[in-house]
Amino acid sequence: MSLGRQLKNPAGPIRPARPRLGPRTAYLVQRILMPSPFYRWLGARIESSPRVRRLFTGTEKKIKEEIFGCRMCGQCALPATGYACPMSCPKELRNGPCGGVGADGSCEVHPEMRCVWVQAYERAASQGRAGDLARLQRPIDHRLWGQSSWVNYWQGRDENLWTDDDGLATPAALHLPATLKGPATRQAPQDPQDRQGPADRPGQRKQGPAGQQTRDGMRVRAGRK
Ligand code: SF4
Fold this sequence. Notes:
The chain has 6 helices and 2 strands, in the order H-H-H-H-H-H-E-E. By secondary structure, it is mostly helical. Helix 3 crosses helix 4 (50-68). The two termini are 26 Å apart.
């Protein structure tokens, strides 16, 4: 995050939030809020009146701030991050943790707090959704800060926020200590090449079968959600 925005952040320094809604309930609510002709109509009505729009956005802010530590980026990543808000990461990382996560899962900037991405992994894994974390979050449009992400969602404006779950061979894994690990959700098919030697060690790049760069055996391809 830029120093300018960090300084302007009215709520003070960004701190990792701890979601107040359990992951199971959060995924259930997600199903209720899925875009439909009704929600599209509702979104259009909300947007047609500046006053209603302000009211609705203010209500969304209150609810999501309280439950998820939402900062109203307007392009919600929650469905793909186990309902742990990545914008509550002090570094605003939307594609996984930085290299400073403590061995106990603590945040590097606020060691007394748990890393948002450790929480995201645990929450997603507990619902069989750890594979979601293998999607790549695209850069957000910073002009949309403060807008209602619900309305943007219903109006289909955030459809390309992340890549497809396109059969990535390796599920997301944060290499947590055994005591912190959630249940495994998707078995990675064993790639015989993974057993071949030093060239396949984590951190070393190799060429994928379709000529794509891969890291740790993970294929990366952009696509639609
Ligand atoms: S709208 Fe943005 S800031 Fe708010 S919960 Fe979703 S990702 Fe986090």
